[in-house]
Amino acid sequence: MPSMVSPMSRRRFLGMAALNSAAALGVTAVSARPASAEPPVLPEFSPAVVIGTGYGAAVTALRLGEAGIPTVMLEMGRLWNTPAGDGNVFCSMLKPDERSMWFKNRTEAPLATFLWLDLANHDIRPHAGVLDRVHFGDMSVYVGRGVGGGSLVNGAMAVTPRRDYFEEILPEVDADEMYGKYFPRANAGLGVNHVDPAWFETCKSYGYARVSRKAAQKAGFGTAFVPSVYDFDYLRREELGEVPRSALGSEVIYGNNHGKRSLDKTYLAAALGTGNVTIQTLHEVREILRQPDGTYTLVVRQTDADGTVVGTRHLGTRHLFLGAGSLGSTELLLRARDTGRLPELGEEIGRGWGTNGNVMLGRANHIWDTTGTLQSAMPALGIDNWSDPVHPVFAEIAPVPAGLETWASLYLAITKNPERGHFTYDAATDSARLQWSVSQGQPSIDAAKALFDKINRANATIYRYDLFGGTRTFENRFTYHPLGGLVLGKATDLYGRVKGCPNLYVTDGSLIPGSTGVNPFVTITALAERNIERVLAEDVPR
Ligand code: FAE
Q1: Model confidence pLDDT, tens digit, residues 399-441
Q2: Could you tell me the end-to-end alpha-carbon distance of the chain, in angstroms, rounded to an integer?
Q3: Is the CB of 153 under 6 A from ligand 1?
Q4: Most exposed residue of 216, 310, 463, 479, measured as fewest CB within 10 angstroms of its CB?
Q5: Is 271 in contact with 277 (CB distance < 8 Å)?
Q6: What are phi and psi of 517, to 5 degrees?
Q7: Torsion sign, CA atoms 518, 143, 76, 257
Q8: Does the CB atom of residue 421 touch ligand 1 within 6 A?
Q9: DSSP 180
Q10: Spatial distance between the Cα atoms of 238 and 392, rounded to a whole number of angstroms
Q11: Is any ligand 1 atom within 6 A of the Cβ of residue 325?
Q12: Contacts of 258 (CB under 8 A, 6+ apart)
């Protein structure tokens, strides 16, 4: 009788076992090779190296591993699999501790204040926590750190972009192929699921979304359900009290202890399960050099979870894949170009960066429109006004999972902001600097305001003035969705091959030119699936 278990499920099972035993041993490297009783050491040479363990990186490693190519993944963050003293791997948003943020003295939550009080933030001990907020003057960027990258901290919204907009942003990519093959493949690999509409109408978890929907409808706007990689059946059971609470326990930006299909449970587990992939944690790639024979050498800084440098190591490879995210991959190539290590890199390195038009805002509801004390931290509904010819907006209805009634409706609006920033290399700090000004964020505010002014007018409601510091109503000084820096077809060819540097590839969000019109990880995953298929067929001898 044929086995009912798909190769990906079997690999995922093997990989999960490897991740769990690595966590139990407290090691910094994970592989699922049969002989791996001892944690694997970093080799001197590996045929393929993938930097980072986010979406693009995870897809790439799985497909390399399946093709039988020994692959090392290098991740600067921790493996998030070991319960701390409180029995949980991650801390909650209401009681953050050292696990919450990447080497900060105090948490930096997106809602700066509530009723002008700094209630969300707490002093913490600097540690290799799971969420980073990287500051660049007028813009700061949230990113995940650890095995799974952004999948550990994000809102799990798994949205395939509108085809007409995808064709607009990446016109040279074959949309038939993307929508016929790679988006479905990405959705399957990520474990995307959909909320049961009947349950949605009656549950407590999404009372806050129903209140926002009512307000949107009163102004004539439609809403759309948002697919997710959070397990909606788990959420249903959370509400029934059958399982430990995670989305209903105010867990999201500092990690979810349950319910979420983050990459360590999907693509990365399957990659490890091939037996060909090893993950080295707390290994930060600092430099990329090319040898006369065309291979690459990486200078890698190894730290402990308290930030102490415990060694500098060198790793050679023939095929190098950058999956360190828009900030990480762009910085690595800018540094390599501007320090003269890879002088062939061109002018497009660091260009075409955008915020995906992110802007956050809150509305004050009427006293009778309660949003509920129990709120799923995983959004499931958005106001879809992307067809507006002047101000397209897709606004997720976000929770305020404070555990008490707030009468606040919160939104993360994704807008079509044409402004782009760029990165420059700063030799004094050996880091990338983002060139982005406050005025470049204004189109995002204009678009969100056009939509929400109408909603407020129709409902006789007002904006919240107490959430983002001072009396500002729109927050566009941070983004969750950094995109671009190494744009497909500009810094790379149409499959992510870096121009001027054979066997060097980009696989992550830096390929997308600043905007994708919806939450970006499905687009990143699908593009990575497309690109690695071509690269394996044409570039990697087997
Ligand atoms: P990413 O996931 O950022 O992974 C990069 C990895 O590389 C990280 O683990 C880094 O630690 C590591 N790294 C960086 N530099 C180095 C180096 N030099 N050496 C070694 N390792 C390095 O890359 N998107 C959605 O689609 N839906 C959502 O609901 C959503 N919500 C979000 C909520 C929050 C709070 C945040 C922060 C993001 C959210 N996003 C969401 C965005 C999404 O997580 C993001 O677009 C992807 O994670 C980007 O994937 P990449 O593969 O580009």
Answers
A1: 998 888 889 999 999 999 999 999 999 999 999 999 999 999 9
A2: 32
A3: yes
A4: 310
A5: yes
A6: 80, -15
A7: negative
A8: no
A9: I
A10: 35
A11: yes
A12: 234, 243, 244, 245, 246
